[in-house]
Write the structure tokens for this entry.
Amino acid sequence: MERNQWESAAEAILFALGEPVEETRLAQAMGCPREAAARACQSLAQGYEAEQAGVRLVRLEESWQLVSPPSGGRPSGACCPGASRTSSRRRPWRPWRWWRIFSR
């Protein structure tokens, strides 16, 4: 995906803040008109969706935010075969049994 300077700037700002950012605040930080910031975010969102990237860019009223995909960020079997199997085999947490050493 070919990115222009506005898309790169929007992505960097949204990633660094990690919270919803209003279009006007984003445009002010980017030094461009609000419409240009909105177009850059829309283009990024479409690009992430097309690439099935590990993040999504969603619009919340007049704000934009980077979020994890609906799968919860879990690896799929297509890219990591066995990733789902190993996580289900994990042993349950057990506290240290140091008390057995001293109880003798």
Observations:
- Residues 56 and 70 are 9 Å apart (CA to CA).
- The longest strand covers residues 56-60.
- The beta strands are 21-22, 56-60, 63-67.
